[in-house]
Amino acid sequence: MSWKVPPSHVVIFGRPGSGKSSLAEQLGADHGFQLIRTGELLRNAIRRGDSLGVRAEQLIKGGNLVPDSLISELLEQTLKAPGTDRLLFDGFPRTMGQVPILAKFEHALNFRIDCYLEIAVSHQAAVKRMTGRRVCPVCGSTYHLVNQPPRVPERCDRDGAALEQRPDDTADVIEVRQQIYNKHGLPILDYYRNHAPDQFRSVNGEQSYDAVYAETCRVLGLDASDSEPG
Ligand code: AMP
Predict the structure, then answer these.
(1) pLDDT band at 83 (very low <50, low <70, confident <90, very high)
(2) In the chain, is it the N or the C terminus that has fewer CB atoms within a 10 Å radius of its CB?
(3) Pair 225, 143: CB distance under 8 Å
(4) Domains along the chain?
(5) Which residue has the higher pLDDT, 130 or 70?
(6) Which residues are known catalytic residues?
(7) Mean pLDDT of all residues in the chain?
């Protein structure tokens, strides 16, 4: 089923390494979505050294999830005034316990998620991708050594900063994160597939990055070549 108007409130799901964060970034830049990325918000809190960051740091380094209550607190700080009518959630909800937290924010802030979007890749393909992932410590842009290399090797296209491998992208932590996704992420997909079938969509994430982006835009009823007006 296609949309009458393209969805304005979207949750993007995919196992670690599915490429969902790069897709979210591009959807934000091209189509004006405000990104709500709990992983990035947590990393910022750690960098600032505030109390929430201190509580989250060790769990994140080990690839483990932080408690649902902490995610609720984090979003409480971030979602006070959404400031845009287009929101794209990336990395939340991450457990079944966070499903009612999202519903609470929908109710309190008077918006409705109109698309739950899965970027589907196998465990094996995701692991392969994660080992090549690099991130800019300054602006948070993500790259991949093979699939999405920066113009200058190991340097951010936007600000020239030296790219880093995230501490939770090492081989043993990658495996922990995949297992966590199997345990907590897959049941959420089943939940929305069954409870919101008209809003649920799945995209084949095992294509080239450009093909996945094009399919994502098509599924959302957006033009892949469009840029945000203005
Ligand atoms: P991400 O950047 O989305 O891969 O998130 C990095 C890490 O932050 C995850 O491995 C978790 O430790 C933590 N994290 C991010 N979002 C959540 C969430 N919604 N619930 C619990 N932990 C999270």
Answers:
(1) low
(2) C
(3) no
(4) 9-33+86-219 (3.40.50.300)
(5) 70
(6) 20, 94, 133, 166, 177
(7) 91
